[in-house]
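Inverse folding, one chain.
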């Protein structure tokens, strides 16, 4: 009899493993359960759908259930896996009010995450939306249209909150963003986050930092600073892993209750794998377990899980938390450790900030950009980088991510043969300028 892989979750963490698994085991039977209405979609595109830059929800789907079915995958939409019986090697599934069981030889959990919903009065009122799936996006858009939402409150200043603030501003709404911490984007150092906040304000978003949200009414958000009228509230407080099923079945959970996996994406039970926002990763610089919910990570972890399920040997080394975003006209990117994270991880570090331009200073369209390096004091090794700037600035973070992965020190980065022509950068690329500044700082401190 053919072996069977059961996949729970229809987005990259689950579906991204299937082709690799079947390449290794062509006879593998695959059943994929998705409780929503979509498979393989780009949640990352939701802000651009809301902004009106993407014309329909369907454009965000890269592979429909029928496209999977055409390759022989038994995709069951509107089917929710409600329990895992690891001893019997079965999953319990609910569909249309009926519950049934299905057996597996291999199980892959790609259950994703959910927007954090604080336990505040009124959190369950209909105006409060979290955004994670296309179904969430459909609900949000329907509500925005029906309520003619012209006042939108964003609660939380992570990148999803910020992208949604931009999106609703582009739709013509008055947008207020409230963040409890003293800065937006907690994944950046405060000085870099301040540049992002300035960009939001320039774009017309009313930003309140250091301000606690206390509850929600049908037409308002109640904050420590007063009542903000709102037709719609979008939560941008971060993502928590959907790990309840795993936890209830006895699978080991790790940091922030994410499913514990090893470097091969194996959970604590034989033949059970996990990938994507539901599970944890290892940070490549600090070595610590982290939960970083990004599509880039989900796709890579799923590929590794699929290779292993298919009988090959593959490992996922870990993450740097490399992330990029466009907030209004400003690009933002980060990788590795921030100053505070470096300190928490026990590194003695220093930081260098340089101001450059995105293109040669004389070239039309040249804009300013700020690059920050976090550097290990003793060795000069790059630990982290952050970029905030105009068009064309943020993708340079990839060079920094490569440098960190390779363990390069700033004296080695200075010599990297990076490309130059006036429409793209100055003759010294901003990454090289930052490395030179860091090197100078090290030399001066040693004198
Ligand atoms: C607005 C927004 C913007 C983003 N932008 C970016 C970006 O620019 N770059 C980036 O790298 N990442 C971005 N992300 C993050 C990225 O979308 C996620 O990291 C990625 O989708 C995770 O994939 P996943 O398969 O692990 O989880 P999900 O995409 O959450 O998919 C999990 C699926 O499992 C289903 N499911 C869960 N439990 C069950 C169950 N018990 N039974 C059946 N089905 C179940 C869910 O319905 C869901 O469809 C963004 C996310 C959002 C919300």
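Residues assigned per position:
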């Amino acid at each position: 009899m053919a072996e069977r892989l059961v996949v729970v979750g229809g987005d990259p963490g689950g579906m991204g493993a299937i082709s690799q698994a079947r390449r290794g085991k062509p006879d593998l039977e695959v059943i994929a359960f998705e409780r929503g209405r979509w498979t393989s979609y780009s949640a990352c595109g939701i802000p651009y759908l809301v902004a009106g830059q993407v014309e329909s929800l369907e454009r965000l789907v890269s592979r429909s259930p029928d496209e999977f079915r055409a390759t022989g995958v038994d995709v069951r939409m509107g089917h929710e896996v409600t329990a895992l019986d690891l001893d019997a090697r079965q999953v319990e599934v609910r569909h249309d009010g009926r519950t049934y069981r299905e057996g597996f030889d291999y199980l892959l959990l790609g259950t994703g995450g959910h927007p954090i919903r604080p336990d505040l009065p009124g959190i369950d009122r209909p105006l409060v939306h979290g955004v994670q799936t296309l179904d969430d996006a459909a609900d949000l858009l329907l509500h925005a249209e029906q309520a003619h939402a012209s006042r939108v409150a964003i609660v939380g200043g992570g990148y999803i909150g910020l992208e949604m603030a931009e999106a609703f501003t582009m739709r013509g709404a008055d947008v207020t963003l409230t963040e409890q911490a003293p800065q937006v984007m907690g994944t950046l150092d405060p000085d870099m986050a301040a540049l992002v906040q300035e960009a939001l304000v320039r774009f017309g978003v009313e930003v309140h930092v250091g301000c606690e949200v206390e509850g929600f009414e049908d037409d308002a958000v109640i904050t420590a600073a007063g009542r903000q009228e709102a037709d719609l509230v979008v939560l941008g407080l971060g993502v928590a892993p959907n790990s309840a099923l795993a936890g209830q079945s006895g699978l080991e959970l790790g940091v922030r209750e994410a499913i514990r996996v090893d470097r091969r994406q194996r959970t604590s039970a034989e033949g059970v794998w996990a990938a994507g926002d539901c599970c944890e990763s290892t940070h490549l610089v600090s070595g610590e377990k982290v939960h970083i919910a990004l599509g880039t990570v989900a796709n890579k972890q799923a590929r590794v899980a699929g290779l292993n399920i298919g009988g090959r040997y593959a490992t996922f080394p870990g993450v740097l938390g490399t992330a990029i975003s466009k907030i209004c006209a400003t690009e933002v990117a980060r990788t590795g450790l921030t100053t505070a994270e470096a300190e928490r991880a026990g590194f003695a570090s220093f930081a260098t900030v340089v101001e450059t331009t995105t293109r040669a200073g004389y070239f039309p369209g040249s804009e300013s950009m700020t690059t920050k390096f976090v550097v290990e004091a003793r060795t000069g090794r790059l630990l982290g980088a952050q970029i905030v700037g105009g068009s064309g600035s943020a993708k340079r973070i990839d060079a920094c991510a490569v440098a960190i992965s390779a363990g390069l020190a700033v004296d080695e980065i200075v010599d990297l043969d990076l490309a130059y022509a006036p429409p793209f950068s100055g003759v010294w690329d901003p990454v090289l300028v930052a490395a030179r500044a860091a090197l100078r700082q090290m030399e001066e401190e040693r004198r």
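DSSP finds 13 helices and 25 strands in the chain. The chain has a mean pLDDT of 97.
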